[in-house]
Design goal:
Blueprint: H1 5-15, H2 20-23, E1 41-46, H3 55-63, E2 92-97, E3 105-110, H4 119-123, E4 129-131, E5 137-139, H5 149-153, E6 160-161, E7 171-172, H6 178-182, H7 188-192, E8 198-202, H8 203-216, E9 236-239, H9 258-265, H10 268-351
Parallel strand pairs: 1-9
Antiparallel strand pairs: 1-8, 2-3, 4-5, 6-7
Helix pairs in contact: 1-10
The chain binds iron/sulfur cluster (3 copies).
């Protein structure tokens, strides 16, 4: 894996601050109910209204520019197979048979729940994940090192990895349509749902809507808002007419914020987290040493070239001087010889 300097320094900045499991803002609150972002948004999935049309899936792929699936979204036969989210599908709808009402199917939309205290963020020692004040848990691919602890940590088995991408693979998951939220737009899936099975708003208002529905229709709903307290709370909330455990949703998670569970479940991670800064510092030192060695080698080579050039120049100069000397001597000899010959000739003319 090639490391750009920017990325490397990004790691150093993130890792160098110490054990993030303990300091992450994502787990700043260790109470059962995280209230750090009271104005954050949430989305309610009213399972009793969902008809499994997959419009939300289609909208999600469209707004996130994800590839079109092999089978078109209009093909509802895919609902017969239990699916999980992938790098090419941030959300999937699964079909369940209702034990209480065997003649009815129950459709459950699945995506990142945007936990109030995300396990993925607490497990990520380079801080690639961030819980935003708006509620979305965002991911920064530019600092991700691909260790995939987030995938192990997530209790909802959400993050997916671009295994088929040779260069710079990313962790992929629902973004809660953060870019759209910031522009004041509805999340794509919410806008597309033809049955109003999805409702977007401030979390406190969404909780009130959910409570009102349960209060007004106790025959229709079980008395439980899934996500209000699970794992310390999530930004996707669910209403159902059947027990959540019967439709593939874990009810064994408790109300403990995920980071606390993560640190327990990923016993090895804190050790690795502790080691990484040391390792990165080592790599950095080696690379600096290499740079220094390269610098020294470069200087030495230049010095040698200069010395060689000097030697060459001196030798050429000597040769030139020698040649000049020889030419001069030869010229003098020629001149002397000629003068002697001229004198001899003159003497012979005088005596004859
Ligand atoms: S559902 Fe999983 S991926 Fe999404 S915020 Fe929670 S821990 Fe992270
Ligand atoms: S794979 Fe997950 S845990 Fe690992 S660096 Fe990336 S985001 Fe963090
Ligand atoms: S909120 Fe956006 S990214 Fe998440 S499932 Fe809906 S459309 Fe997809």
């Amino acid at each position: 894996m090639s490391l750009s300097r920017r990325k490397f320094l990004g790691w150093m900045g993130a890792a160098g601050t110490g054990t993030l499991l303990k300091n992450s803002s994502a787990n700043a609150a260790s109470n059962a109910y995280f209230s750090g972002y009271p104005n954050s948004y949430a989305i309610l999935h009213d399972i009793t209204r969902c008809v499994g049309c997959r419009s939300c899936e289609a909208a999600c792929n469209s707004v996130n520019e994800l590839p079109v699936p092999e089978k078109p979204f209009a093909d509802l036969s895919v609902l017969e197979t239990r699916r999980r989210t992938t790098a090419k599908a941030y959300t999937v709808v699964n079909k369940f048979s209702s034990v209480a009402k065997p003649d009815q199917s129950v459709y459950v939309k699945k995506q990142c729940n945007h936990c109030l205290e995300p396990a993925c963020a607490s497990a990520c020692f380079v801080r690639a994940f961030k819980k935003t004040p708006e509620g979305a848990v965002t991911y920064d691919a530019s600092v991700c090192v691909g260790c995939r602890y987030c995938m192990i940590a997530c209790p909802f088995e959400i993050p997916a990895y671009e295994y088929d991408k040779a260069l710079e693979p990313r962790v992929m998951k629902c973004t809660m349509c953060y870019p759209r939220i910031q522009k004041g737009l509805l999340p794509g899936c919410v806008q597309a749902c033809p049955k109003e099975a999805l409702t977007f708003g401030k979390r406190k208002d969404i909780l009130k809507i959910a409570r009102d529905r349960i209060g007004n229709h106790p025959d229709r709903y079980i008395d439980h808002i899934y996500g209000e307290r699970e794992m310390g709370g999530t930004s996707w909330l669910y209403l159902s007419g059947v027990p959540f455990s019967s439709i593939g949703m874990r009810e064994d998670l408790g109300v403990t914020p995920a980071p606390e569970l993560t640190s327990g479940a990923l016993g090895a991670v804190p050790i690795v987290v502790g080691l990484w800064p040391v390792l990165l510092t080592g790599i950095y030192a080696i690379s600096r040493r290499k740079e220094k060695v390269a610098e020294a080698e470069k200087r030495e080579a230049v010095d040698m070239a200069v010395a060689e050039t000097r030697r060459e120049a001196a030798s050429q100069l000597d040769a030139a001087l020698d040649k000049a000397r020889k030419e001069r001597d030869s010229a003098v000899q020629q001149a002397v010889k000629k003068a002697l010959e001229d004198a001899k000739k003159a003497q012979q003319e005088e005596t004859s």
